[in-house]
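WARN no homologs supplied; continuing
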Amino acid sequence: MSLREWFSKLVTGTPHEKITRFIDHTGRAETYLIRWHLVPKNRWCNVYLHKFIRNDSDDPHCHPWDSISFLIRGRIRERAFDIYAFEHEAQSTREIHAPALTYRGGEFAHSLELIDGKPAWSIFITGPKWRDWGFWTRHGFIPWTGYRDYYTRHGAEQ
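OK structure emitted
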């Protein structure tokens, strides 16, 4: 995306990305996260405005970078998983209420859900990419690029 396109979307409020999750075995998807890039996307540090409108996938995921999230509006429930003793059951669950600041390392496996189904907004800051990102399933780690195929075969396995 050119700087002109990035800036035009930012100043008009047009999202830069709409992120989807799978909703059934056919691979149908729906938007759950709307993202604006507050700085042009780059390899060192990205700053996003996120609007969560639905829950994450049931399968926990991890990110390709360390990150800081500043929840500025709303409430979310975060389920955390231990990827080294993974039994596909949350090791801990916590509620996060705005305003709240959260650091997550790239290996931190989690899933987020909206409390009361109401949208939540956050400023999300990433460091440089240092790993692949994807989903943790009963069959182990599935890179995001293969998750659609995996999901159409197995679905979310909570």
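The chain has two helices and twelve strands.
OK
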